[in-house]
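User: As part of a screening pipeline, I want to sanity-check one entry by hand. Below is the sequence and the SMILES for flavin-adenine dinucleotide. Please return the complex as structure tokens so I can compare it with the automated output.
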Amino acid sequence: MPDGTVDVVVIGGGAAGLNGALMLARSRRSVVVIDSGTPRNAPADAMHGFIVLDGTPPLEILRRGREQVRRYGGHVVLGEVASAEPAAPSADGDLRFGIALTDGRQVTARRVLVATGLRDVLPEVPGLARHWGQGVVHCPYCHGWEVRDAPIGVLATGPASVHQALLFRQLTEDLVYFTRGTALDEDTRARCAARGIRTVDTPVREVTSDEDGGLAGVRLADGRFVARRVLAVATRMQARTEGLAGLRLPMEELPDGMGRRFASGPAGATEVPGVWVAGNATELTAQVGASAAAGALAGAHINALLVAADTDAALAAAARGEAPAS
Ligand SMILES: Cc1cc2nc3c(=O)[nH]c(=O)nc-3n(C[C@H](O)[C@H](O)[C@H](O)COP(=O)(O)OP(=O)(O)OC[C@H]3O[C@@H](n4cnc5c(N)ncnc54)[C@H](O)[C@@H]3O)c2cc1C
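Assistant: Here is the complex for your manual check:
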């Protein structure tokens, strides 16, 4: 951890945080990325749908991203932020933030980029969680091609799950929609039936595994078993907020229980001066490409505002007759 005040601390070193840090480090900003090493897509074998990197294991992308940030002088620190809060400004009125890690290390920064991602909360179905990211998936663009033509089931979590079913129907003809007590009007049933999607209204008791630990299928409340190789399920997406309460960032609840995110404006600026947010922490549906792009945009915006602050400070120093700072 560098001594003194750094230009920017990035909290979270996934696609968003690392790309933000890359922009800042390449602009000769002193930047520290603090990352606890649990990116959202860690359970997946490979990342898909982002050109050039398609098929690369998620942890390999992070390894290369950290290396690239370090190549430009950026620091990437493995650790978990325990607290982050505004501190007393500098003598010339520039903002300051104090960030403490759970292991006791501390750093002071002029600006903060929050890129902590989100946590997927699965519906409470016995046996479901152990298959997350393998036999249990959420995103047709991330895993759909890999499970094409397989027997797939959609476990509904609300009326909007029909949309997920229609997307997965694009990938397989063998699709079962488990309504799980969610509303399904006659028109929607007819639309599903027209696409050959079978609907099951009997409640789901549990998800079962085969001898090798893979997903076997779904046991219904009446004892019937429906064999499935893959289950698709929408999660509730919760921005990760651990250690960030002191920043007092406003949050927003999205409709239909979809999730909770940090509110942000253009380029990830927030209502809290000096704090930006990027990636899944504020855009719950962003994939790796969109998260990286948001981080890059936030990094460039932070640099632009620091340039303005530095110029104001230089002007004030010049007015006092002081020599220009290096
Ligand atoms: C199973 C699965 C598979 C997926 N597959 C794909 C795919 O194939 N293609 C695709 O484009 N997208 C995929 N996604 C979506 C992808 O994971 C996200 O778009 C992406 O991870 C968002 O990047 P991020 O930087 O915002 O967050 P993350 O990648 O989640 O990174 C956030 C980082 O912040 C760290 N962090 C959080 N809190 C703290 C704290 N207090 N202190 C320090 N560090 C902290 C975490 O450890 C983590 O490393 C998948 C998602 C899942 C769940």
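Points to compare against the pipeline: Helices lie at 15-26, 58-71, 140-143, 161-169, 186-194, 288-319. The longest helix spans residues 288-319.
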